[in-house]
From TrEMBL:
Species: Roseivivax sediminis
Highest taxon in the source lineage: Bacteria
Full protein name: Lipoprotein
Length: 47
């Protein structure tokens, strides 16, 4: 093989390796929203 073909293959391999190698999975956090209103509670007949 000629040196140009080897250099192009090496450059392509390094580019593909650097594009795919550094990625990390992103952590997903799900937070339950707080209720907007609270439920009424029994406080007695005349309170």
């Amino acid at each position: 093989m000629s040196h140009t073909v080897k250099l192009a293959a090496l450059f392509g391999f390094v580019a593909a390796l650097s594009a795919c190698g550094g990625q990390q999975e992103e952590e997903v956090v799900v937070v339950e929203p707080a209720p907007i209103t609270s439920e009424p509670v029994y406080t007695g007949k005349y309170k």
